[in-house]
Amino acid sequence: MPRPSMAELIHVDGMQVVRLSNAEASAEVYLYGAHVTSYVRRGVPKLFLSDLAALDGSAPIRGGIPVCFPQFGKRGPMAVQHGFARRVVWELGGALDAATPSVVLRLPPGEHADWDYRLGCLLKVALEVDGTLVCHMTVHNEESERACSFSTALHAYFCTPDIEKTRISGLQGTTYIDQLAGGAVVEEYPDKVEFLSEVDRIYSGVPSKIMIECGDNLVSELELETFCDAIVWNPHVEKSRGMADLPDDAWKGFVCVEPAVAVQPVVLGAGEHWAAILRIR
């Protein structure tokens, strides 16, 4: 018999985790960081999670889908990398929906260093009937009078059998900021992005579909709504050696393709909303 749809809140080593599943797929979402740590479709893991990832709330989780908010990297006023959202415990935004199955998580209000705006943020994580993973992000400027700007990314780590045979397609004709070349702006002309050395790029004006391929196999297909940028990253050999929460050779088994709004921040007037969606097929 097909596995019934399910959404349940469990505890793993003292951490709150929402487990979602249906007949086609399963996912796990930590309330710490509203962080999707696992997505398995038809028995195949789609997201990479480091064997050395901190899963106790002591540090941001390495792997899965971290939420970078209210800034990406250091492209904003905050001194902390990627903002504060991935470093706090989010709240349940309502009852779990076992029928969908889905969960809505809400960023709790609070004081944060270098940030004095009131932004509400919700992340809905759901599994569609065919096993597609959906991350629906909404942001609300809760200020009564002043506008607010932010940048964001869903810093997704995807499993791949061999990074040196992995290709990203769908980005031809776009431009990117090469963060390994002092921020030089480059036009992407090859059909596919390759990973023969470290890659750290912010693509702008990206299409609504991006494919991750390895050899002749489609690893994952991303569908984007509203996200206009995408970061493509792999640390390769040297940078991996300097990352305490990543095994030295783990770079061979993942690639980051991150839907984002990073090049030009979103500006919301008082009371305005913004929404974006990532679907992983």
UniProtKB/TrEMBL annotation:
Key words, A-Z: Isomerase
Taxonomic classification: Eukaryota, Rhodophyta, Bangiophyceae, Porphyridiales, Porphyridiaceae
Keyword Isomerase (UniProt): yes
Molecular function, one GO term: carbohydrate binding
Active site, per annotation: H155, E258
GO cellular component: a single term: cytoplasm
Binding of substrate, residues: R62, Q81, R86
Record InterPro entries: Aldose_1/G6P_1-epimerase, G6P_1-epimerase, Gal_mutarotase_sf_dom, GH-type_carb-bd
Family: Belongs to the glucose-6-phosphate 1-epimerase family.
Origin species: Porphyridium purpureum (Red alga)
Domain of life where this protein originates: Eukaryota
Enzyme class (EC, first level): isomerase
Short name of one Pfam family: Aldose_epim
EC number: 5.1.3.15
Chemical reaction(s) catalysed: alpha-D-glucose 6-phosphate = beta-D-glucose 6-phosphate
Name of the protein in its database record: glucose-6-phosphate 1-epimerase
GO BP terms: carbohydrate metabolic process
